[in-house]
Design brief:
The complex is a heterotrimer.
Chain A lengths: L14 H24 L11 E5 L9 H20 L4 E5 L2 H6 L2 H7 L6 E4 L1 H9 L12 H6 L9 E2 L2 E2 L2 E2 L3 E8 H6 L11 H13 L4 E3 L6 H13 L16 H15 L13 H6 L3 E7 L1 H9 L5 E4 L11 E4 L2 E4 L6 H12 L4 H14 L7 H9 L6 H10 L3 E3 L5 H16 L4 H18 L7
Parallel strand pairs in A: 1-2, 1-3, 8-9, 11-13
Antiparallel strand pairs in A: 3-12, 4-5, 6-12, 7-9, 7-10, 7-11
Helix pairs in contact in A: 9-10, 9-17, 10-17, 10-18, 14-15, 17-18
Chain B lengths: L22 H37 L2 E3 L5 E3 L3 H7 L2 H33 L5 H9 L6 H11 L6 H8 L11 H29 L3 H9 L4 H12 L1 H17 L2 H7 L11 H11 L3 H25 L11
Antiparallel strand pairs in B: 1-2
Chain C lengths: L14 H40 L20 H9 L2 H32 L5 H10 L5 H14 L6 H9 L2 H12 L3 H9 L4 H12 L1 H16 L3 H6 L8 H6 L2 E2 L2 E2 L1 H27 L1 H4 L4
Helix pairs in contact in C: 2-13, 3-6, 3-7, 3-10, 4-7, 8-9, 10-13
Classes of the chains: A alpha/beta, B mainly alpha, C mainly alpha.
Protein name (chain B): Carbohydrate ABC transporter membrane protein 1 (CUT1 family)
Subcellular location (chain B): Cell membrane
Main location (chain B): membrane
Chain lengths: 457, 318, 293
């Protein structure tokens, strides 16, 4: 270990160091540049194409269904690009990232959000109150506006102005495996109509050694979304349109009690079967019934076309009225984007124009690309006419399940979280529904006192 | 192995060079060299961690809507923290989690390192086997365990039922979920710290063991009197970094496995911070929570440093 | 320089008698240790074995919880490589991980050398500051970090994937602890010969660092290979997709074809396992290279 180089070069006089120094200097420069950055202005490149973020458009997977969905987006964009100077470009973001990741929040917080994006009802108010949703109304004709099915625009509008355009309506229902029912000695006549029937059927399925009735178990916007029908069926609600908190009620207590009873009776599992995959859950006999949405039809069609299953509308409590939740994603334009006006026009022309292509597109998404209810009367008529709802399962959705639907609420995070905590506690932690309903109502009350954003619906 | 035997200031690296009388010139050159050696990392850390942290602390005093509005609100976020029951819940969960994860991982990794540092057949295979979990990404780990622990067809449940034990819902019962996460973390991390312990063990001169063996000392005596004291710098390092990793990491696993559920049963503080920031867009509040977390960790680390004179340890004679 | 621990010598008087018994018991013990290690190893790798066997299962079998395969298939792998440019994802991850690892080892060893072996005013303060960056929770700094990286023009680029990932106090801290225990004579011998600090670092410290480098290289490589959150936030370009992001593309809206996800995960995990198999010998052989007696 003896070295004889007497004139060893001193440290630091080497390339990497100097480059690092330069980089560090840039870092400090960045600090100086942060003040405007914090104010939220992104770089503006006037002629660059507008970016359209979704979890479908330009997906790399070659599989049929994925490509079909991707193609649907790309066709919209191609049509637009052919007719407009302001170009649009699809940006694929895997759904797991889109839904619960930090990519979108980071981009928006840094003033670097996409010019166009898809938005779910749960996020609507946060984005609207943040001032990033561009008003789409100027680009929608009165005729097109009335073409939308009643209520689907309500949760995407504020003060009569439309801020997001849905391209699908997704009702929640109960799917069941015919084989499981038969194995438990049950027939179509035994399909549960009330909550008591449901508990009864669950017991029978379980004692026959069949899978249980799957209810969503993971806390999140999705669990709340599929749970709300229970609350509404009892006549309860979270907040009235006037802003009054009504969650601390016998109705809410009753609604919180059903899933609690089902889990505690061993009818419903504490974790989603097959990590949430319906096809595996049903075909492997891990589950007999699953409380989920209309998209399941497409999943089964694609991956288990021969599996025999049925669907029925959510059972109701004694003395209750049937209601289900209607979910679905919508297009939105970023008001802080590079060309909000063009982006807004893009949304409207794609989904809310009376042109043949717009109507066909919405129809195609609902009965071709996916299995949904289209949000527009004209598209629904075309879907009916082309036999989109002829199959028994789709017919049930179209005629029994969809009717009486109510749009997924747009609640701000604190309201969502209060309800979520109540559901989770009652369902999985032995919480007392009365106590949890009261606690949630208190939290929401506290929030509503200072809340200044758009109306909760 | 002896730097720490002297007070840090006296730990002159070049006692033999000092008499020549170049000490002042040398000191200047040494200082200059030190800063040049440090420059790349210091600039990088400053730019990509220090500066963001300073900005994050600034955010803790602001109301941030997640869409470009940054409004100064003084201590409001901290006041909110004090009145937030879920903050206390998540703090309690974090403590339970820490008290379990740190000793268990420490013990498991040290035990494994000591076990496989001896000469035995297939030692490379064992080493690889224990390290293997860490080589897989958290997303995959989450998915694999999701299936292994599933209530109906999970391997773990099947095995338990075979011996007549009714398994709990590992991740679906709030009384178990946190312990399940703890178990997964220990499984995931133990190979990582085992490697660090192995590196530390390699530094213990073999002749000590030889001497002890010649003297007929038992395995426990060897561990107690040779391994443990000589491993002190490594143990210190592991304890410190493991605590920090346990507190600040782990949110990805929870995100994949339970999303904080069931009934907030796995909503430890760092997950709560993630949720506030990215699910709710409450970046200001999240920053306040994380500033609090950094302060706690800083206090803990400084205490450890103070107790060990900056992580320097003396070996042997003491 | 290593101090002699005198305690074991206390056992000396009984040496002859104990030696035989220790030898005989040693063989039995050795068998016990091997058996113990085997059991623990099997338990540890079981979930990963399950992952690998499941990657050869069809969609019907994938969640059945069994380690055995009734109807083995290679389709999942075919799917992974034909559905998406998975090779490209792997190449991206490889490039980023290797560059980060090499640069990080170099920078961190330089910094650690200064912190451990050089005397200068403010050394302890610098060390504490460097260390304290370890305490930062990533979720809290993502947005400021994003802003900085954007201002540096590194969004959506390899530079953005690589540069911020290089700087991490863990490596500096570990190397500093290691360098603290390097005997002074080695450095002195070089210095007497008139070597400057750079030469000492380059010719004495770096060669000594080989074993710890191999351990750190594995850690750095894995951390970057498996990183997900940062690449997800700063890349949008498909050509920059790293492997962990690629896997997430196999999950769809309300579920997933788990057999594909598991096969993709297995493909992603294999290189990292390989890296470790290659490096693990060197970590253990360190005793020969450190120069510690």
């Amino acid at each position: 270990m003896v070295h004889r180089h007497r004139h060893a070069s001193p440290p630091g006089h080497r390339g990497p160091d100097r480059r690092a120094l330069l980089r560090g200097g840039l870092g400090l420069g960045a600090a100086a540049a942060l003040a405007p950055a914090l104010a939220g202005c992104g770089p503006s490149e006037a002629d660059a194409p507008l970016s359209f973020w979704s979890f479908n458009g330009d997906a790399p997977q070659q599989e049929g269904q994925v490509q079909q969905q991707s193609r649907w987006y790309l066709d919209i964009i191609d049509d637009w690009n052919a007719a407009n100077r302001q170009q649009v470009k699809a940006q694929y973001i895997p759904l797991a990232v889109y839904n619960n990741g930090s990519k979108l929040p980071t981009a928006f917080a840094a003033g670097d959000g996409p010019d166009l994006f898809v938005i779910s009802p749960g996020d609507f108010l946060r984005y609207y109150n943040g001032g990033v949703l561009e008003d789409l109304t100027p680009h929608i004709t009165a005729e097109a506006r009335t073409d939308f099915l009643p209520n689907v625009l309500d949760t995407r509008s504020v003060g009569g102005r439309v801020y997001a355009l849905p391209f699908e309506v997704e009702p929640i229902a109960m799917f069941y495996s015919v084989a499981s029912m038969e194995a438990a000695g049950l027939s179509e006549a035994d399909i549960p109509k009330t909550w008591d029937d449901l508990l009864d059927t669950g017991d029978k399925l379980r004692s026959a050694g069949q899978g249980g009735i799957a209810l969503e178990t993971v806390p999140g916007y999705y669990q709340n979304f599929v749970w709300y029908p229970l609350l509404w069926q009892t006549g309860g609600d979270v907040v009235t349109p006037g802003g009054k908190v009504v969650f601390d009620s016998p109705e809410a207590v009753k609604a919180l009690g059903l899933w609690k009873d089902m889990v505690e009776a061993g009818i419903s599992p504490r974790r989603n079967p097959a990590a949430g995959d319906a096809v595996t859950g049903f075909t492997q006999g891990l589950v007999s019934m699953w409380h989920r949405g209309i998209w399941t039809v497409k999943e089964m069609e694609t991956s288990a076309p021969d599996f025999e299953y049925g669907v029925f509308r959510l059972p109701i409590p004694d003395g209750g009225t049937y209601v289900t939740s209607l979910g679905g994603w919508a297009f939105a334009a970023n008001a802080q984007g590079r060309n909000p006006d063009a982006a807004a026009r893009f949304c409207a022309e794609a989904l809310a124009s009376m042109s043949e292509s717009s109507i066909d597109r919405v129809t195609e998404w609902s009965i071709g690309v996916k299995t949904d209810i289209p949000p527009r009367t004209s598209a629904l008529e075309r879907a009916d006419a082309s036999g989109g709802y002829d199959r028994p399962v789709m017919k049930a959705f179209r005629e029994e399940i969809y009717a009486g639907g109510r749009s997924e609420p747009r609640f701000p995070p604190i309201v969502y979280k209060a309800v979520s905590d109540a559901i989770q506690s009652c369902m999985l932690a032995g919480g007392d529904p009365a106590v949890e309903a009261e606690r949630a109502a208190e939290k929401i009350d506290g929030f509503m006192l200072t809340y200044e954003g758009a109306k909760l619906l | 192995m002896t730097v720490g035997e002297k007070a840090p200031e006296a730990a002159a690296p070049a006692p033999s060079a000092a008499p020549v009388g170049r000490s002042t010139g040398r000191g200047k050159a040494e200082t200059r060299a030190a800063w040049l050696f440090l420059a790349p990392d210091l600039l990088g850390l400053l730019t990509f961690l220090g500066l963001p942290m300073v900005l994050s602390v600034a955010l803790a005093f602001m109301r941030v809507d997640g869409f470009g509005t940054y409004e100064f609100v003084g201590l409001e976020n901290f006041r909110r923290m004090l009145g937030d029951p879920q903050f206390y819940d998540s703090l309690r969960l974090t403590l339970v989690y820490l008290v379990l994860v740190v000793p268990l991982t420490f013990g498991a990794s040290l035990g494994l390192a000591v076990l496989i540092q001896r000469r035995m057949p297939f030692v490379g295979v064992f080493r690889s086997a224990f390290f293997l979990p860490y080589s897989v990404s958290v997303v995959v780990v989450g998915l694999v365990w999701e299936f292994m622990l599933s209530d109906d067809v999970g391997v773990v449940g099947i095995a338990l039922r075979a011996v007549g034990v009714r398994p709990p819902s590992w991740l679906g019962d709030p009384d178990f979920a946190l312990f399940t996460v703890v178990g997964l973390c220990v499984w995931f991390w133990m190979g990582y710290y085992m490697i660090i312990f192995l590196a530390g063990l390699q530094d213990i001169p073999r002749d000590y063991y030889e001497a002890a063996r010649l003297d007929g000392a038992g395995a426990w005596a060897v561990f107690r009197h040779i391994t443990w004291p000589l491993l002190a710098p490594t143990s210190f390092f592991v304890l410190l970094t493991l605590t920090v990793a346990a507190v600040t990491g782990g949110f990805e696993l929870i995100l994949v496995l339970t999303n904080g559920g069931p009934s907030n049963g796995t909503s430890v503080l760092v997950f709560y911070i993630y949720q506030q920031a990215f699910t709710f867009g409450e970046f200001g509040y999240a920053s306040a929570l994380s500033a609090f977390l950094v302060l706690i960790l800083l206090a803990w680390s400084m205490m450890l440093f103070a107790l060990t004179r900056g992580g320097r340890f003396s070996h042997g004679r003491s | 320089m290593a101090a002699v621990d005198t305690r074991p010598a206390a056992a000396r008087p009984t040496r002859p008698a104990r030696r035989r018994s220790a030898g005989a018991g040693g063989r039995g013990l050795k068998g016990f240790y091997v058996a113990l290690a085997t059991v623990l190893a099997v338990v540890t790798v079981f979930p990963l074995l399950w992952m690998i066997t499941s990657s050869f299962k069809g969609p019907d079998e994938v969640v059945n919880g069994r380690l055995t395969i009734e109807d083995p298939t290679f389709d999942n792998y075919v799917y992974v490589f034909t559905q998406v440019p998975f090779l490209r994802y792997l190449a991206n991850s490889l490039f980023v991980s290797v560059v980060v690892t090499v640069v990080a080892l170099f920078f961190h060893s330089m910094a650690a050398y200064a912190l451990a072996r050089l005397r200068f005013r403010g050394r302890e303060t610098v060390f504490v500051l460097v260390f304290s960056t370890l305490l930062i929770t990533i979720p809290a700094i993502i947005i400021p970090l994003f802003l900085i990286v954007r201002e540096l023009g590194m969004l959506n680029s390899y530079a953005g994937l690589i540069v911020p990932a290089v700087f991490n106090a863990f490596g500096i801290f570990l190397l500093r602890q290691f360098y603290l225990s390097v005997p002074d004579e080695l450095e002195e011998a070089a210095r007497i010969d008139g070597a400057g600090y750079w030469r000492v670092y380059w010719s004495v410290i770096l060669p000594l660092s080989r074993p710890i480098f191999s351990a750190l290289a594995v850690f750095f490589f894995l951390a970057n290979w498996n990183s997900f959150v940062w690449p997800m936030i700063i890349t949008s370009d498909q050509a920059l997709t790293v492997v962990q992001l690629g896997i997430s593309g196999f999950q769809d809206q309300y579920g997933a074809d788990w057999n594909y996800v598991i096969a993709a995960s297995t493909v992603a995990a294999l290189p990292t396992m390989l890296v470790f198999f290659v490096f693990q010998r060197q970590i253990v052989d360190s005793i020969k290279t450190t120069g510690l007696k």
